[in-house]
């Protein structure tokens, strides 16, 4: 591990490029499906989070996405238009709106996930358990890292 302490800037730039390309490629696979519904990457991100956090509040969704209310509203309007999300008022606090994927939304995110899963699954399958665990740990450190 000590050899990593001596990474040169060029090596770190190459690592950043690989992260960018991996991100680009794993999301480009879904482009055709998203295009059928006139949706983009922002819509995909929201739908993905809704599939993981069913009933999330708008406030919590904004925190996870780190975007403005205005940006989220644009995305939500598009998703409402294609009937892929539904809102429910909170049972304890009616001021809170909870967002859920509708059956249409669930079907769409499942279609998108099955496309994305192929690339990720293939990469994981062709990696050792140790590589997968180390990669997961590095990704978590990048996500949680503070500057």
Secondary-structure blueprint of this entry?
Blueprint: H1 9-28, H2 31-36, H3 41-52, E1 56-57, H4 58-65, H5 69-81, E2 85-89, E3 97-101, H6 103-125, H7 129-144
Antiparallel strand pairs: 1-3, 2-3
Helix pairs in contact: 3-6
Name the descriptors:
mainly alpha; Arc Repressor Mutant, subunit A; 3-stranded antiparallel beta sheet; 7 helices; 147 residues; globular; single chain; 3 strands
Which residues form runs of ≥5 with pLDDT under 50?
none
CATH first level of the domain at 26-114: which class? Mainly Alpha
Strand order of the largest sheet: 1-3-2
User: What proportion of the residues form beta strands (DSSP E)?
Assistant: 5-15%
Order of helices and strands: HHHEHHEEHH
Written account of the structure:
- By secondary structure, the protein is mainly α.
- The chain has a domain at 26-114: Orthogonal Bundle (Arc Repressor Mutant, subunit A), CATH 1.10.10.
- The protein is built from 7 helices and 3 strands; from the N terminus they run αααβααββαα.
- It has a 3-stranded antiparallel sheet with strand order 1-3-2.
- Strand 2 and strand 3 (97-101) form a beta hairpin.
- The radius of gyration is 18 Å and the shape is globular.
Quick overview:
This protein is mainly alpha-helical.
């Amino acid at each position: 591990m000590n050899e990593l302490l001596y990474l040169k800037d060029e090596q770190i730039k190459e690592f950043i490029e690989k992260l960018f390309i991996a991100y680009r490629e794993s999301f480009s696979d879904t482009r055709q499906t998203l295009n059928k519904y006139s949706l983009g990457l922002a819509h995909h991100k929201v739908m993905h989070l809704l599939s993981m956090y069913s009933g999330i509040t708008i406030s919590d969704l904004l925190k996870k996405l780190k975007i403005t209310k205005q940006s989220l509203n644009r995305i939500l309007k598009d998703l409402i238009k294609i009937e892929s999300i539904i809102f429910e008022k909170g049972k304890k606090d009616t001021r809170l709106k909870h967002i859920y994927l509708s059956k249409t939304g669930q079907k769409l995110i499942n279609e998108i996930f099955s496309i994305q899963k192929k690339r990720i699954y293939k990469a994981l399958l062709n990696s050792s358990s140790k590589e997968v665990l180390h990669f997961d740990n590095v990704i978590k450190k990048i996500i949680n890292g503070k500057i």
